[in-house]
## 1
Amino acid sequence: MKGLLYLTLNYILYHRWKTVVMVACLFLTVILPFTISGLIRSFEKSIYTRSELTPIVIGAEGSALDLTLQSLYFNRGSAVQRSATISMAEQQQVTRDNLAVAIPIHSLYQAKQFPIVGTTGDYFRFRDLKISLGSPLTILGECLIGADCARDLGLAPGDQLLSDRPNMLDLAGDYPLKMTVAGVFEKSGSPDDSAVFVDLKTAWIIQGLGHGHQDLESPEQEENVVRDGGQIKALPSKVVPYTEINESNIDSFHFHGDTSTFPVTAIIGVPKDVKSETLLEARYQNNDRGVQFVRPVESIKELMSVLLRVRQFFMVNTILIGVSTLLLTILVLLLSLKLRQGERETMFKLGCRSGTIMALQTFEILFVAIVAAILVLAVSWLCASMASRYFDSWITQGGSW
Amino acid sequence: MIHIQNLDFRYPRADFRLAIDELKIETGEKVAFVGPSGSGKTTLLNLISGISVAAEGSVNVAGKEVSQLADAARRDFRVANTGFVFQRFELIEYLNVRDNILFPFLINPSVELTPKVRGRMAELAESVGIETLLKRYPNQLSQGEQQRVAICRALILWPPLILADEPTGNLDPGNKDMILDLMLSEFDAQDRTFVVVTHDRAVAEKCERTIDFSNFHRRIQPDEAIS
C-alpha cells in the first residue's frame, strides 16, 4: 500500500498539469450545481424563515411582494419605488378591534445607507430582539442599531448617527436628524442586524411631521440672532444644517395635526387566532381605502417559485454539461490507461501483483476525485458562509425586484 | 538452473508453436538464444519467467515447476528469482533513477525495502557509473545511461537468473560494447545464470553457449490445429 501511494504521488507530481486539468474538470462540473443549489437553499432560508414568522402585513395597495420586502426586509429598492403609505388610523383600528397585535412600520429613510425603521416596542418583542449593549429607547431622537450596522459603522451606545437626506437637491426639504445610539441589538441573523430602529415619532420627525423650536431669547443663542427693533431673527449663517433632539430642546418638539392621520409604510399583524385573521382579511377585501392585506409567506412563495423554475432550468443545463464533462473525463482516463499500457506490461513482467496494477490506476482516479471533492466542499463552504450575510444585505440594501 | 522437458506451447488463435523436447541451462551459464524473428526466443523467456504458461511439458526454474504455480505465486517467484533487461529499457518515466532501480520493491509487497537494499542500490549505481544521476528522470538520460539503470533494477534483488531480451538492440555501437561488458562482468562476479535473446553476433559470441531456435519453432499443421 505504501509503495502504491508513493507511485501514485510520483505519477501525479510528474503529470501535474494533466492532474490539474482533470481536477479542474471535475471541480467545475460539480461546483456549479452544488454551490448554486446551496446558495439557493441559503437564500430560501434567509428569506423564507422571516416570511413564515410574520403572519400578515397591511399596507397600501400595489405590489404585494414590494410591500412584503419593504416591511419585512426593509428593502431599499422597494422603499424607493414604493413610497405609498397608509395612515396610523389603520393600526389603531386593528388594535381597537382586538383582532391582532398591530405593529406599525415606518421604513422610508436611511442612515449611512442603513434603513431607518420607525416602530414601537412591540416590534422588538415580536422579533425577540435583545439588546447586547446600551439601553432601550427612552426619548425622542434615540436609535437602536443592529449588530451588523454597529460593526460596519463602528458605532457604540452614546455615538451619534445622522440620517441621510432623502433628496440632496431639495434645499427646502427636511433636515437630517442627528440621532443618538441608545443601544446595539444582539446579532439575530436577520435583516434586523442591518437596520437602525427608532421610535415611530422619531421617524415622523425625520419625515418633517414633527419639529422643535430653538429658544432664540436664551443667552446661548445670543451669537446666532439679530435684534431688529422688537423682533429677534436667526442669522442664516448660523442655521444648524441638521435637526438634533437633546435635553434642552426635547420639550419643544411637537406634531401639528392628528397623529392618527400620520403615515406608516405597513402594519405587521399578529392575529390572536385563525378567526381573527379571517375577520381581518375580510375587512381588507375590496375596501375603498386603498389598503391591502398580505400574507408574506404567500408573496415569498410566489417569488421562490420563479427562482425554483430558474433553478430547474439551470440544473437541467448543468446536468447536460456535467454528463459531457464526465464523458470527457472518462475519455481522458481511458487515454491515460492506454498511455500507461507499456508501464502495466513492465510491471507485470517484473512480477507486480495483478491487484496492484489496478489499484495504481484506481488511486490516481481517487486522488483526482478526492482533491476535486475537497475543493468543491471548501468553495461551497466559503460561499455558504458568505451567502447568508450577502443575501441579507442584498435583500435589505441593494436588492430591487 | 533451468530444465525444460517436452514443452509444447501455442498461442490461442495463432498458428505459432514452440516445441522443445529437452533443454538444460546450468547455474552460472551464459546462454544466447538466436534465431529468426518469430522463432520463439522471447516466448521461451516468458515461459521461463512464468509470464506465459505452457499447457504441456515441464518448465523447472531454480527447483520450481513454474507452470504449476498459481498466478500470484508465479509473480512472487518472478520478482524474487529473475531480473529482466529489456530492449527498450522499460523504465518508468515518472520515477527518478533511484526509484526506478528500487521499482520491484514498490510493486510487490512480498519483497521488503530495507536499509540493506538501499545500500545495495547505491553500490550498484556506483558500479555502473550512474551514482551522480540518481535524482534524474529517464528522459534526462542517454540511452546507455537508461540501460545501465535497467541493469541495476534487474540486479537489485540478487536474482539467480537474469533474462535479457535484445538488451543492446537500441544502443549505438559504443554503448553496446560498454553495456555488454558491464552486464557480463556483473553477472560473472555473482555467478548468475544469464539468458539473452539476441540477433547480435557479438553478443552471442560473448556467451558460453548459443541455442539456435530454428530447431524448436515450427508452424502448426492444419490437422494439429483441429486436434
## 2
Amino acid sequence: MELRIVHDLLDKVVLDDGRRNIGRVDGVVLELRRDAAPVVSAFEIGGRVLARRLGPRLARWAVALGRRWPALGNGVTRFAMRDVRTTGITVSVKCDGRPTPALAWENWLREHVISRIPGA
Amino acid sequence: MKRILDLTLGIVTSIGGFLEAGSIITAVQAGAVFGYKLLWTIALGTLGLMLLVEQSGRLAAVTGRTVGDALRERFGIRFFIIPLVTGLLVSFLVLASEIGGVALALQMATGIGFQWWAMPVAFAGWFLLWKGNFGIVEKGTSLLGLVTIVFVVAALKLHPDWGRVGASLLPTAPDHDGPRYWYLAVSIIGASISPYLYMFYSSGAVEDGWGVNDLSTNKATAVLGMSFGGILSAAVLIIAALVFLPRGIQVDRYEQAGLLLPPVLGHTGFVLFLASLGIACFGATTEITLAMAYLLAQGLGWDWSENARPKQNARFSLTYTVTILLAGVVMAVGIDPLKLTNFSMMLTAASLPVTVIPMFVLMNDEALVGEHRNRWFSNAALGALSIVTIIVLVSAVPLQILGGS
C-alpha cells in the first residue's frame, strides 16, 4: 500500500482505541530492503524524536537531558504500522494508549500534581 | 430561534471581549497626541482581525482543526516551532500586561499598589479557568465587558466633528512627531490583530463543536462583532482626542488614562472607566492564558478542553496554571505595566507574518477545506494584509527605538 508520509502520517495527532490523544507522529521508522522500495515499518512519539527533527544540537541536548534527569525523559513510544487503523487528518491505532511512555507524563502529573489541587 | 440566539450571543461576546489593555492604552495615547489622525489604523486593524477571525473560524468549522493543529499538520514541526515559540513568548508578555491592567484598575480604586494586586488577579483568573468551563470563561467575562460601551456613550456626548472623524479613516502622514506617529500606528495594529485572538477563536469553535452549519454564524460574528468592537476602540481614541489633546495631557502613566471619562461623565465616569479597564483586561487575561495552553497542547498532540475537569487533561491544566501564575509574578516584581503594554503590542505586530502568511496555504488547500476554500476576495484581502504585516515587521525595531518613548 502506498503511504504519503508527510501528507498523511508525520505530525498528525495519534488517537488510541478510547479516542484519546496520545501525541503527534514525531518521527517515522523506515525499513530499507534489498532490491525493493523502503517501507514505513513504524512511527514514533517522543520529545527526543521531535528534537532530532529540529536539529542535531537540540537532539544532543534532549539526549543529555534524559541522561541527567532520567525521570524527565519521556521515553519513545513506537507503534508498528500493522497496529495502525487509519491515517489521514488524524492517525488512529489499535491499542490503549494509557500505559505507553507517551502518556507517562500525563499520568504522573494527574496523580501527583493536578489531582491534589482542590476542585480537579 | 436558537440560531438567532447563538448568533446574537456570539456577536455580543465579541463586542464585550474586544477591548483589552493594549487596545485601550494605544487608542488613548494616539488620540492624546494626534487627535483623530490615527483612526485609520483602528479601521485597518479591525478589518485585518475580521478577516483572520472569519478564516480561522471557517477552518475550524469545516475541518474540526484549530489554527494551531493545522499549522503543525500542514507545515510540520520545523516550521511550526516558529509560530509556537513566538506565539507563546509574545502572548506571555501580553498576558502580563493584561494582569497589569486589572491590577492598575484595582490600584486606582483602592490606592493599594498594583504589585500587590498582581498575584490575587492571577489567582482569580486561574480559579475561573480551574472551576469554570469554556462558556463561562468566554461568555461570562464578555457579557460583563459590555460595560465598555460606556466609551461609545461618552464619545457621542462629546459631539465629535463627524466629518473629520470620517476623513481620518483614510491614512494621512503626520504633521509632527513622525516616529511617534508611526510607532503608535504599528502598536494599534498589534493591539487589534493579536494572534491569540484567532487561535482562541478557532479553539472555541472546536470546543463548541461547530460544523459547516455554523459558517453563517461565523461570518456574522466576524463581520458584525469585530466592526462593533472596532467602534469601541475608535470611541476611546475620539474621547482622548477631545479630552486630552486640548488639555495637553500625554499618557505616559497608566493613572492618567483614568482621567479620560470624568470630564464627560463626572465621578461615575471614573468608576465606569475602572470597571471597563478591569473587566476588559480580566477577560483578556483568561482568554490569553487559555489560548497559550491550547496552542501548546494542540502543537504537541495532548488532549485539551476547557469543558473537561482539570485532571482529565493534566498537562493542559498544568500549562495554564503555570502560565498565569508566572505572568502574575512578572507584574508582582513591579515592571511598569504601561511600558510592558506598549512593548508587547509592538512585538505582537512584529510577530504577525508567521501566522498570517501560512493562512494562505491553509485556506487554499482543497484537501483540507474543500469547497469552503478562499475565493478571490478573501485571498486578495489576505494578500494585502500579509503585505501590511511584512512592512510592520520590518519597521518594528527602528520604530521601537525612535518612537518608543
## 3
Amino acid sequence: MSQHTVTLYPSRQFKDNARSALGDTELRHSLRTAMDFLMAKRLSAFPDENELETLRTLGETIRQRCLAKLPTLLEQLEAKLTANGIQVHWAETPAEANQIIQGLIDRRNGKLAVKGKSMVSEETELNHHLEAHGVTAVESDMGEYIVQMAGEKPTHIIMPAIHKTKAQIAKLFSENIPDTPYTEDVDELIQIGRKALRHLYMKADVGISGVNFAVAETGTLCLVENEGNGRMCTTVPDMHIAITGIEKVVEKLSDVVPLYSLLTRSAIGQPITTYFNMISSPRKEGELDGPREVHLVLLDNGRSQAYADTQLRKTLQCIRCGACMNHCPVYTRIGGHAYGTTYPGPIGEIISPHLLGLENTSDLPTASSLCGACGEVCPVRIPIPEMLMRLREESQRPANEHVAHPLRGQGAGRTGKESIAWRVWKGVVGKASHYKLFGWTASHLRALTPVNQPGWTQNHVPMKPAAKTLHQLIKEREAKRS
Amino acid sequence: MTANTPDSTVSGKPGYPTDVYLFGTCLLDIFMPDAGMDAITLLEREGIRVHFPMDQSCCGQPAYTSGHPKEARDVARAQLGLFPEAWPIVVPSGSCGGMMKHHWPTLFAGEPEEALANALAARVVEFSDFLLNTLDWQPQDQGQPAKVAVHTSCSARREMNVHKTSWALVDRLQHVERVVHDHESECCGFGGTFSVKHPDISGAMVADKANSLQNSGAVEFVSADSGCLMNINGKLAKDGNTRFAGKHLATFLLERTGGKS
C-alpha cells in the first residue's frame, strides 16, 4: 500500500478557516464578483423558464434511472469498454486508485504526466502520491495550473482559481515561469500559460483526465472542456488514464445530450463547450495518432454508502456543474478552501460526509441556513436542503442506535449539551401548560433576560421577550369583551 | 377565541371564508406579539372570524432542522388536535408555514397521525397569501408617501412560493413605493440554529443584508417572517442604528390603512 494517505479533517478547521476567509476583503470581493457573474450567466442561458424546468425534470429522471440500474450499467460499461480496447480498473479507496495509476505509469517507466481537470484525482490527492513516487504530474487546465503553481487545492469545482485576482496570477507566473515578465493582461497571461504547457504534452509519458459521462451502451467516455487541454492530454501521450467516480455512468448515448446541455448552461451559462471529447478506444491499427493504451479507473470512495440509502442516493445524481456553489450565500462569503474538502459548497456538504465520514465533517451539514438556493438551481433537482437535514439527523443520532444503513461517523455531531437542550425544549414547548407558564415567566421576568446569549449576541442585541405574549394579549382581549 | 361578528356584506361572497384558525408561531408569540394582534385585526376587518387555539405552541421546526426529528415530532404532535374544524390555518410566517405544509407530512410519515398531519398541511396558508389570494385585500392607504423595501424569507420564497404576495400587497398601497434592494433574493443569514452555530458566517450574511436594505433608499423594510426580522433588526440595533428597522408585514399594512391609531 501507498505511504500517502488522504488526510482531510475539515471539521477540525472549518470554523477557523471560515473566520479567516471572512476577514480577507480581497477574497470576499473576488468571490462576490465572480459568483454574481456566474449567476447572471446562468440566468441568461435559460431565458425560458418552462424549458428550464422541463429540462431539469428530464435531467433528474435520467440520473435517477441510471442510478437505479447502477450495478448493471457498471457491468455493461466494463464489458463495452473492454470490447473497445479500454482497460477498466476498480478502486474502492483513494489509496487503491492512486496505486493502480502509479502501477500503470511505472509499467511504462513514466516520469511525466499531464493532467486534464479531474476532481476525482483531487479526491485521491493523486498528484502528491505520484510526486512521492518519482512522477511529476502537471495540471494543464489553466485554473488548475494556477492553483498547482500556488501550492493550493481548487477552490471551486469548475473554476479552480476563481478566488485569485489578476495581480496574484501575474505575480505567480512571473515568479514561476522562466523568462516571464509581470503582466496583468489576461490574454497575455493565458498565452504565457499555454506556451509553457504546450511542450509538456509532447514530452509527457501519460495523460490523465476525468470523465463527465461514461456511456454504458457504447463504452464511450465523454469529456467536457473549454481549453483543448483535455483533448491534448487524452490524445498526445501514448497512455491515457481516465479516473472517475462509479456514479458517472449513464445508460445511453442519448442520455448525454440533455445532461450536457444542463451542465454547461448551469455551470457557466454556455450553450455548449468549445470541446466535447468522446473517447471510445485507443489508437487503432493504421491510425496516425491517439494513445496506444487507454485505461479507466472507477472509484467508489464512500459512494456505495450514499447509494445504499434511497434518500441519500440522490446525492449521486450530481453532474458537477457547481451551480449550487455559485448561488450559495455561504460559499460566496467563505470560498472553497474554508471547507477543507475536495468538493466545497452545498454539494460538498452532502458528498463529503460519505467520502470522509461524519466524524471528519460534522460541521459541514450545519454550515447552511437552509435557504434553498442550491436546490432551486440544481440541474438534476437534488433536494440539497433535505439531504443536509438528513445528514444533521445522522450526525445527531446516538452512535450506538441501530439503523438499516448506518453512516460512517454516525453521532459525530452529537453533544450531551445540545441533546439535553432539545429534550428540555421539548418538555417546555411540547406541553401546552408548560409552554404557557414559560411564556408568562419569560415575559414577566424579561428584565432578567441574559445579555450574553452565546452565538446570538456576537451579531445582535439580546433577544428580549415582549412584555406580554400573544397568548396573554388575546386572553386579555377576550376578558374585556365578555 | 371567537372574535367579533363578521361583516355580513363581505362574508356573503361565495367561497369567501367565514372563519380561520391563526397559528401564531412561538417566535411571534414571545418576541413580536403585536404583529400577531395586527394580523388578527386585519383579518377581522375583512369580516373573518379568527380562532386562536390557546393550547398552541410551536410547529417543531427548530429541532427538525437541527437534526432532532423525534423532539420535533413530539412538539408538532401537540398541535395536531387543535384545529378540528375544516377552516384554513393561517400562519403569519413563511418558515413555520413551510414546516407545517411541507415537512409535517414527512415528519409524520408512517406514524399514526400521518393522515391528520397531511390533512392539516393541506389547510395551511401563509398570511400574505391568504390576504392577497383568498381575500383579495383592497386597502385604502392613509399613510404619507414612503419608500419601503421588502425582505422575503427563503421559506416563503422557495418552500411556500409566496414571495410575490408580499410585494403585491405592498404594491396595492397607493402611497407606497416598493424599492428593490441589492441581492434581494439572498438569505439574511438567520436559518434558525445556523445563526448561533455559525455566528461568523451568519454575521457576515446579516451584515450584507442590513447594508443592502439601508442602501436601498427605503425608509423602512417589511417582512412576513419574524425570524428574519429578529435577525436583521437585532443586527441593525447592535450596530447602533436607531433610524432604520424592519416591521412585520401585518403591522405595516395595518398602520398604513389606519388600523393602528
